[in-house]
């Protein structure tokens, strides 16, 4: 288009100097031309005489000599630079002639540049807002977990290690901000230290476990898994088998059991009364497994629950499965028989 603009200037010069060139084919390369210095003066690029002829947006291309180059990559690079520079400036530095095509082209560049700018600003705002929301979410999660009873029970050095842990892991905690969700995302060594601090004292509340060595208690801690339950979840139903012991770290449980009431008459049908009890932080359930394995360690059956256990709040607890307890019981019996 720049070349077309230059040829158009040449034609205008010929019309202005009709006596010196009167035919269009005078511009052909194989034509024996006359002295055309008047064309260079009329269509001067260096002086930029807009009164004689205005090259408009093509002046820069003609002045740089890019239209005369045969190096295609350099020509493409020049065009790319020109387009990017003027898009970023909304076409403010482009000087046009009165040609309609030029003005429409510059208007298009200005509109397109503004659209890109608005699109960029919009995406930047969305990104900054998402980062702000992410930071606020992580802050709230940290605050909620630091205020939890499970966190407060830990020594200061472990609390600092958890606080220093990567923010990405705080963000990955799904299903709420309970301590148990974060615990499962911690490194193995840190998770084990936390389990020893929280679980060991809970295990020692079981009378039989207080007789065991620290080594066996540590093994029980390794087997225990931190689990979380939502409100009003039925953990054990009356009449079902007991397959785990639960040690409450935080939260509350409610137990329902039936007890027979003596009516004083042998002829009357038995009457049952529902007994309701509550379990809180530091307490446990499923202790029937301990007595069961003490009586018959290698039984293939499991004890049957005489009560229904349900959560009344969100609960974090350590779960000790029956097969893990059975294995450690076996080691305890072997160690006791060896010592005797």
TrEMBL record:
User: What are the residue boundaries of the Cyclic nucleotide-binding domain, all occurrences included?
Assistant: 208-287
Q: Report the GO terms under cellular component.
A: membrane
Q: Does the keyword Transmembrane apply?
A: yes
Query: Keyword annotations for this protein?
Result: Calmodulin-binding, cGMP, cGMP-binding, Ion channel, Ion transport, Ligand-gated ion channel, Membrane, Nucleotide-binding, Transmembrane, Transmembrane helix, Transport
Molecular function in Gene Ontology: calmodulin binding; cAMP binding; cGMP binding
Q: Where are the transmembrane segments?
A: 104-128
Biological process per Gene Ontology, one example term: monoatomic ion transmembrane transport
Q: What is this protein called?
A: Cyclic nucleotide-binding domain-containing protein
What species is this protein from?
Acer yangbiense
Record lineage: Eukaryota, Viridiplantae, Streptophyta, Embryophyta, Tracheophyta
